[in-house]
Amino acid sequence: MAIQLKREYLDQTVLERLSSLELHARLPMIGSVAGKHRSPIRGSSLEFAEYRKYVPGDDTRRLDWRAYARNDRYYIKEFEADTNLRLCLIVDTSGSMGFANNGMSKLDYARRIGGTLAYIAALQGDAVGLYCAGEQFHKEIPPKRSATHLGAVLDELGSVEPAGETGLVDILHETAERVPQRAMIIILSDLFIDPEEARNCFEHLRFRKHDVAVFHLMEQNELDFEFDRPMRFVDLEGGEPVLADPHIIGTQYRRAIETYIQSMDEVIRDTEIDYHRVNINDDYGDLLARFLLGRTPKKR
Fold it and tell me: By the 8 A CB rule, do 125 and 84 touch?
């Protein structure tokens, strides 16, 4: 598939570096064409799955005569059918995603991750879609397979702006129901939601048989809170600004962020989603290389 790179947030060097890696689903997928990913539907690919008893009407060419010689019973060999993947990017576009350091905002970082994964998926023949998670679905591009469609996804990803409160919880539940077949759901967000609400979202997505991966985007100042003088803190999602002395509130803040992270870690362990806590100061090419390698199926 020939795809022209005209989006400045896509780094040609990173794409070339990742060109030898593929995006794999951790769960079986259901697609419309032959592809690279395991399917729960049994087919006749070269990957053996299991035996089952012969029933009249089965293709006798798939009989295992060695099994018959051992057991005096007819068995059919079943194989895993390969299929294509539906990649659904869910990008948080709430105001807090505009938080930046050294000119790189969380949303800028999300664009780079999402755009690169979309490009890789499209090149390997998979469908790509985009859902923007503001207070409502202000943009929804269902997954399709074509260079033109990928261009529409990348253009929209490059044009979204951070604003307002997050609508991530509602959108994740809505996505679980809207996407009719199994898909890989990539969530790009700072997860400014209650961990128990996140648990409900992840469980809903997993119940619908989606393969869920989360890139939890944070900036180092959010963790360290290393400010040395009174400052005016602005709520990027629309709340009132607060003038506070970090020396007074610092201890309480760090305790609150530690509690939040511990609670989120517990949610991740329980729901078993593919979770990555990301510092937006880190190299996203290194991050994606680890992500893709971590999903490479192990040889049997």
Answer: yes
> What is the signed CA dihedral for 157, 158, 164, 169, rounded to 10 degrees?
20
How would you class 300 by CB atoms within 10 Å of its CB: exposed for 0-12, middle for 13-18, buried for 19 or more?
Answer: exposed
Q: Which of 106, 296, 295, 131 is nearest to 213 (CA)?
A: 295
CATH 2.115.10.20 fits 12-23+84-294, yes or no: no
Pseudo-torsion of CA 46, 52, 58, 61, nearest 10°? 40
For the record, the structure tokens of 104 come out as: 């790189």
The gap between the terminal CA atoms of the chain, to the nearest Å, is 30
Delimit the CATH 3.40.50.410 region(s) of the chain: 12-23+84-294
Per-residue pLDDT tens digits for 96-105: 999 888 889 9
Distance, CA of 143 to CA of 85 (rounded, Å):
10
Q: What is the pTM of this model?
A: 0.78
Q: Please answer whether residues 105 and 99 qualify as being in contact, where contact means their C-beta atoms are separated by less than 8 angstroms.
A: yes
Q: What distances in angstroms separate CA 114 from CA 17, 41, 108, 277, one per listed residue?
A: 16, 29, 10, 15
Two structure tokens written together for 274: 């593919």
Q: Phi and psi of 183, rounded to 5°?
A: -150, 165
Q: Give the pLDDT confidence of 160-178 residue by residue, as tens digits.
A: 999 888 889 989 999 998 8
Are 88 and 29 within 8 A, CB to CB? no
CB 173 within 8 A of CB 210: no
Alpha-helical regions (H) of 24-138 = 65-71, 106-123
Q: Which two tokens stand for residue 5?
A: 């790179």
Q: Residue 44 is which amino acid?
A: S
